[in-house]
Amino acid sequence: MSRFSETMYGNALSSRNGMTTGEPYAPVRHSWHQVHQRARRVAGGLASAGVGHGDAVAVLAGAPVEIAPTAQGLWMRGASLTMLHQPTPRTDLRLWAIETASVVGVIEARAVIVADPFMAAAPLLTDLGIQVLTVDQLLAADPIDPVDTGEDDVALLQLTSGSTGSPKAVRITHRNVVSNAEAMFAGANYDLATDVIVSWLPLFHDMGMAGFLAVPMYFGAELVKITPMDFLRDTLLWARLIDKYKGTMTAAPNFAYSLFAKRLRKQAKPGEFDLSSLRWALSGAEQVEPADVEDLCAVGAPFGLRPEAIVPAYGMAETTVAVSFSECGTGLVVDEVDADLLAVLRHAVPAKKGKTRRLACLGPALRGMEVRIVDEDANVVPSRGIGVIQVRGESVTSGYVTVGGFIPAQDEHGWYDTGDLGYLTENGHIVVCGRVKDVIIMAGRNIYPTDIERAAAALTGFDRAARRRFGCMRDTGGRASRWWSSPTPGRTRPRCDGWSTGLPTRCSRRSMFDRERWSWWLPAPSPRRHRANCAARMRSR
């Protein structure tokens, strides 16, 4: 039996902890022992459906109370779990079903398990020749014992972002999960007797599924789990649950903490919630913005939120979940560096005056993880030198399942190229500057899109939440950047919001623009003049 299976089943029998779901309307708590007993029934139903060791199964479900026993039931059968990307109320279900069928084909799934609120998708999948099972059907089966599993059995086939048109799934084994789980709990100083995890993270995302369901289930940790829709409907529910259950640990991407701070400021009264129990609030999955963290700490102070509770972190699906955590109790650590030297010399020189860039330190590598920075020639660079971040360790995936077959993720020495640009500080803490593929190179300078986004967000009349950008080639060989807003309700196409301040304003015919396809809707404060300027630029091409 793999260590993942043996430990999870053992803790299910011995742990007094469990998982609370159904907030805010119908909260119910199931002990991990009860989850395990339901999982044995799911395993029985899977066996009757022909699912066995080594099979892949996709899941389309929304309720954590159903997903938890389904996931464990799959692992009891020695099968792997893939959480499908979920359709929204505005999704064209037929198109979604066709795209999902391609995902199912790539991972060679034996079946798709469906539950509310996605039952409307079941007949569409069946029509495409896919075996569809329901959670209710599986739970009605007789319970069975788990099959034997090995360390290299696949636990998760985690779909990467945008895995529809060209599906790609990260292969995560039992060994990967255990290595990362043990490292994370050590890095977080987790205490099974006192810590309570509160999470709303989506279970189709690696941080939600692996980090905040599989790992708590593995250890038998106390978990309060709601859905992303619960959070979006009522952002302050997050605060209420931390207060109600004396939550000590939580996690979210930067944008969610920013939204949380806005809701606290506008809708909550000081003292309405008690957040003083929170000792570990991880910020990851996207760039950590120091200004947003500082704003959260300022707004959260009247509610008992301690600045030292914030834990900037770094990770990705390819490392199961996490690569690094900031050290417990230190809070946000900002590395302020000379912006020009960062852009031109690709070196992070500490600075307090002049043009600087403030970057969040993301902590040292977790136990069992190695991190290095390499230049374009694959040479390791010293501390504070900018390069591509590479990682190595037992948590790192061996590769991807794709349309073209299996693609290795590691080089011959076990290093995985993250595609992130960054550096290591003198004490070995990771700092991320941006993505290699997103960087705009202009006159020998590295322009990081996150800096442009930050500047654009500060301008009046710009929709921060919908801001998008991409680069295109100039006639002179440089790059320009064009801003787009996502479609607003009622619109069917993106809206062009103009050129980034300080960047070139001509694109060659090789650019990504299609003037027959895109319209030019422009923002305040002077849309008519800006529209004329954009039209003139397009004619000059």
UniProtKB/TrEMBL annotation:
Gene Ontology BP terms: fatty acid biosynthetic process
Gene Ontology molecular function terms on file: adenylyltransferase activity; ligase activity
Residue ranges of domain AMP-dependent synthetase/ligase in the record: 28-400
GO cellular component, one term: plasma membrane
PROSITE patterns: AMP_BINDING (PS00455)
Membership in a protein family: Belongs to the ATP-dependent AMP-binding enzyme family.
NCBIfam families in alphabetical order: PRK07768.1 (NF005850)
PANTHER family named in the record: DISCO-INTERACTING PROTEIN 2, DISCO-INTERACTING PROTEIN 2 DIP2 -RELATED
Protein name (Swiss-Prot/TrEMBL): Putative ligase
Species the sequence originates in: Mycobacterium xenopi 4042
Higher taxonomy: Bacteria, Bacillati, Actinomycetota, Actinomycetes, Mycobacteriales
